[in-house]
Amino acid sequence: MPTPYAENAQYASAKRLPEDNSLPNLLRYTYGFYTDIRATCDRLYRENGEIVQTGRGAFKITNLFGPDANQWVLQNRDDLFSSRRGWDWVIDKVFPGAIMSMDGAEHRYQRRIMQQAFKKHALENYMSIMQPEIAKGVVTWHQQQDFLLYDHIKKLTLDLAATVFMGIELGKEADQVNKAFVDTVEASIAPIRWAVPGTAMAKGVRGRGYLKKVFKRLLPSKRAKETPDFFSQFCHAETEDGQRFTDKEITDHMIFLMMAAHDTTTSTLTTIFYALAKNPDWQQKVREEVLALNTRYLSFDDLEKLELLEWVMKEALRMYPPLPTMPRRLKMAAEYKGYRLPKNSLVSISPIHSHYMETIWSHPNHFDPLRFAPPREEYKQHGFAWIPFGGGAHMCIGQHFAVLQVKCIMNQLLKLYEWDVPADYEMPYQLVPIAKPKDGLPINLRHL
Hints:
10% strand; CATH 1.10.630.10; Uridine Diphospho-n-acetylenolpyruvylglucosamine Reductase, domain 2; globular; 5-stranded mixed sheet; alpha+beta
């Protein structure tokens, strides 16, 4: 098993990291990261094995591949890894105070309070708020060819995030709020990391500033009266010993969770739609499962009855995980499978690679939801083979809410519409910073 160790003779006895940092490879890696990160990870693994260092100087990255690496990093049993220092370069300027970039006691404290907003009774309240809003949103979709699915899903999830998370209707502010979130997300991978006028980072910082004003304006009313939305729940949530969020903590959490709620859910729903467009037999199977419940809105107990839909969702998340890579930074020197990793190494694991490994998944390039069904359950070959929600102490705190929201939306859409794409259509996909179609996913949408 991987072990921490001091930088001494034991450190010297470990093997030197394989490197893939010649100038041609560095240019190939940088270009591949933005254009086809899966192919880039596959090449690094094929040419170097489970561990390889890329980059130069301050930009060196130790890439670890496979479920064993995922488990080592995400479980973090020896407290070797800092999530905070792994993500800071990516999100600190636009999402400071995000729960995913906290460590140790601070992370446990913040998560303990936040969990109050994700308990069963709260999730049931969110469902009751959400489903009438979904009905209002999807009934306006029009039967047409080349219906740009991504744009419509993004509008729907943003409206739901405003209703469920903020307890308001955005109205005229919707476009500006959406633009602010788009700009903050794009800033996370901007090559220029300073807010130079005209750059993506400057737009992202400006977008965050606007979102802060929106939440600060609403804070007094949310503090004054408890309502079922996330914003109010965060304002009133407290632990058994009375710990509560400050105004700044609430604002930071709300900006990050609003982004995560509508951007990652939009990504997941888009890939589900694409998969069901390419596989009409599965589209009909999940439609029949939904119709068999014979209810307009789902109850909390109905969620577990949508088993086929859950397998479809899991397969879509396997093929297109919203986050293709996850960074951490080593707090001390360590050894992994005989290789030495120096203190302060930036380490990256890759769900997009693990989700396609032929040693785990049969015919991984094929859409096959039954790989998640008994008796196959391919993901059970290793507890960290399928990691779209991360794992360990930093497992996505909104995982159950995300599943709930996807099922509630698909429940209504499957009963109203059917859809397809041309047989030769292949969705062009952008995987960073969050997976989405480059062309908006044009589908042929028809009323049932």
